[in-house]
Amino acid sequence: MKIILKPHLKIRLEGRQIPLNYPNKILSKPDNQYFDTATKHMIAVRKLEYKEKVRPMVVAYDIIENGTEVVTIYPSNEQEINNRIKNKRWIKYEKS
Fold this sequence. Notes:
alpha+beta
């Protein structure tokens, strides 16, 4: 799978001091995947170390013809994730 990093993502990685390999790590073995009904992006979540804590890291991405286009990445928390699921903004995605 070819992964394309959008310019916005590169800015976020640098600004948030997130390791460059995190998008690949998250997409290769996500803990959970969702569809974001507000942005229409796919969401992958994986717990990784960030600023000396293990926290859920979220990647928003699109599936395109020749691979995956990563839009952004950000650290999250369990409450924010649960709220998005409860409010049906994020819908669980299961690969078939």
